Amino acid sequence: MNIVERVQSILLKPKETWPVIEAESGDVASIYKNYLVYLAAIPAVAGFVGMSLVGVGAFGISYRVPILNGLVHMVVNYALSLAMVFVLSLIADALAPTFKGEKNALKAFKLVAYGGTASMVGGIFGLLPSLSILGVLAGLYSIYLIYTGIPVLMKAPEDKALGYTAVLIVCGIVAGMVIGAVSAMFTGGGPGMHMGSAGPAGEVNIKVPGSDVTLNTAKLEEAARKMEEAGRQMEAAQAKGDHAAAGKAMGEMLGAALGTAGKGGQPFSPDMLQGFVPAKLGDLERTSIEARADEAMGMKFSSVTSEYGNDKGRIELKVQDIGAMPALAMAMGAWASSTVSKETQNEVEKVYKKDGVAVKEEYRKDGSRAEMSMLLANGVLIELTGDNVDMDGVRASMDSLDLKGLSGLQRKQ
Asked: How does DSSP assign 198-230, residue by residue?
């Protein structure tokens, strides 16, 4: 693989390049050795030159990071950016079943490694801090690359790729915050900016729209300590040549971070959720049901999916507990903060509040398909999808569920 040709092809022809990447042999080590070690150096070196040699200036005042501090920043950030690729690949692999994809650790790593190309190449704008906004735009293009790669590598349906991408990016943001905290422990911090609504002792809470679930940044220090411990375990495992244990330690590092950076609590058990799934929806008999609990890297998910149908129509009911993972709830419930009323010649989309609960409706006017979602305050997400069932039928099915009982479930902390 020629690295220059690969960069050009993934940036300019992503849809044609992903199938080529999927078919390539190789392993994680070879991708690191032949690709990532070079690209990850671009933002690290450019950032050092920009902040320590060029400097930041405005209104006649200039600031340069001392050379020694800049070198430390460069080395630490370079190492952590390489680790971040592996961490995000673990998340991408773990999320695959949630979005009807296929788990494959190597393909998940390819997705993150090559999908991040634009962001790493865009790091060159760090040479001139005044152009750093262009690096942000490059990062946005990496999101698009990952979006186009998910259906090819992770085999997720195209209509699930957007949600898959959103959850992966939000998890990446949270992981980046924690890794930034770890970096600060080594480099002594630096100038920066803090956003959010402050609470006691510097606590910042970010409320997930439409629910009582919050992201709590005051717990990042605790997460950073756990990451540091996991890092020591990873180093010990690598010294012994135990790559499996090293990977496990890396996964536990992120799992601890995501599990503590919020007020989620323990997930509801699949059996508990299944108790609210009826044997019949209207005149449609239940034809299948699946209750599952998935756990990876300390992250826990539970859901129940059931199908109902006859020769006239079909409805799929999915009840998911996303409130136990605040980052997941932030992504999957992002629509709950909006109010939408959109209509075309063939379709209608609405997002509104009903008795204080966020509701989303999407349906075709010919009655061939209708979807309805409801995000309860405790983080339970209910989704109904009807084929050859109109919107009135889907609404009636939603109303027939024990919504009061589901919303009354209390999560253990």
From this structure: E-GGG-EEEEPTTSS-EEEGGGHHHHHHHHHHH
CA-CA distances (angstroms) from residue 238 to 37, 76, 186, 229, 235? 18, 18, 21, 14, 5
Interval 301-330: pLDDT, tens: 788 999 999 999 999 999 988 766 655 555
Evaluate the CA torsion angle 358, 364, 365, 368 in order and state its sign. negative
pLDDT of residue 290: 93
- Closest residue by Cα to residue 5 from 24, 220, 274: 24
Distance, in Å, from the CA atom of 359 to the CA atom of 355, rounded to the nearest integer, reads 10
Question: Is-contact 115 149, C-beta < 8 A?
Answer: yes
HSE-up of residue 90 (Cα within 13 Å, Cβ side) = 21
- 398: number of Cβ within 10 Å: 20
pLDDT classification of 203: cutoffs 50, 70, 90: very low
Domain ranges in the chain are: 3-193, 270-407
Q: How far is residue 254's CA from residue 242's CA, in Å, rounded to a whole number?
A: 19
Residue type, 409: L
Of 289-293, 305-309, 320-324, 360-364, the poorest mean pLDDT is in: 320-324
Taking each helix axis from N to C terminus, what angle separates 3-12 and 14-23, rounded to the nearest 10 degrees? 130
* Residue 407 neighbours by CB under 8 Å, 6+ apart: 357, 376, 377, 378, 380
Give the Cα separation of 96 and 33 in Å (integer).
26
- What are the Cα distances from residue 256, in Å, to 243, 279, 325? 20, 38, 11
